[in-house]
Amino acid sequence: MRLIHALFRLLPLLVSLALPAAAQELSALARLDVGASSVVTKGGGLELTFDVSQPVPWRLRFLDAPPRLILDAREIDWTGIQRLTVSAPVTALRAGRFRAGWSRLVVELDAPQRLISAEMSTLGDRAVIRVVLAPTDPASFAVEAARPDLPDWAAPDPADIMAPLPEGGGPLVVVLDPGHGGLDPGAEHEGGTEADLMLTFARELKEVLLRDGRFAVVMTRDDDIFVPLETRTSIARDAEADLFLSLHADALVEGEAQGATVYTLAADATDAASAALAERHDRDDLLAGIDLTDQDDLVAEVLMDMARTETMPRTERLAAAVVGAIKAAEIRMHREPHQTAGFSVLKSPDIPSVLLELGFLSSERDFKRLSDPDWRAKMAEAVRLAILQWADEEDALRAVANP
């Protein structure tokens, strides 16, 4: 049986709509057979063949700057995809979980391509996805890539992934944002990933805060899924958060650094390393196939908004409290513990937002600390005390301002 999809030229190239309705409810992962799959260059064009263990709903679309082909499926385990040999026009393959129940493959291209054909053929229980591309001109590609996606596809509704606040929750609403996730593992070291380590720490910190009884906690993700930057900040707004804490543990490409660092938003980074980290964080969405280029101007707008309100000084006081509590706990900090950079995830104009780099996976010592549950418990307690100290200071300042 061959399922020929006739909707390819209707962007966002929804292949999944042509599959039987029953397939929409598949929950088991389809697994990639790397040995039976290939990425073959043909006359400047490309033929992609993916052999999977069962038919699944899927779709294609293009994005530009840089040119990329996006293949979403419900749901393929893309383990081993990196073992496929690639050559021009393919520069890289990136795959992983994109959102609950969906996986994403991003095919990065070095030149514009157009779709010639795409189909899924089935043989017994197995299925083969075959996509053929050919070179095209940049203008035509840009038109195809600019066509709108399905509503809310690239940025899922925060309500769909945000756990509800506890009933009768504490007076302080804290949004914890474990960085990366899904097809974006973040920094990696000795088999450990930043995404996994930050999710583990966020869960532990959430429990510490909830046991205190004075907090309500929301997490931007509680699973190994990709959450776009815009959705992370939307979750904080929808939760009416009192503060937003983004958690990371990056790796430096050049130089050495270790220890925790607290970042706040600024147009100018503290140093070149901070600027590089911010650029890499913002590139996560690009690598996931999301183009937030139009959103970049919002950083300047947010900075102006924050300058006109009380949010910036409140954010600075939050950062100072976190730095002070970590030092008081005698936890190793970076030689410049409070830095600034243009992290888009910190751009909420009305919510005090800081990014806590718990350490650097490029540092063996930091990696051992992050892998140590006792160290994480000590850090979580320091963060709890910092938030309480900050909240008490804010209450005192409000009392003075409004006697």
CATH topology of the largest domain: Aminopeptidase
Given the structure, what is the number of helices? 9
- What's the architecture of the largest domain in CATH terms? 3-Layer(aba) Sandwich
Order of helices and strands: EEEEEEEEEEHHEEEHEHEEHHHEEHH
Amino-to-carboxy terminus distance: 77 Å
Strand content: 25-35%
Percent in helix:
25-40%
Strand order of the largest sheet: 1-9-10-3-2-6
CATH class of the largest domain: Alpha Beta
CATH homologous superfamily grouping of the largest domain? Zn-dependent exopeptidases
Mean of all residue-level pLDDT scores: 83
Indicate the radius of gyration in whole angstroms: 23 Å
Major pleated sheet: 6 strands, mixed
What overall geometry do the principal axes of the alpha carbons give?
elongated
Low-confidence stretches: 1-27
Q: Can you count the beta strands?
A: 18
Question: How many domains?
Answer: 2
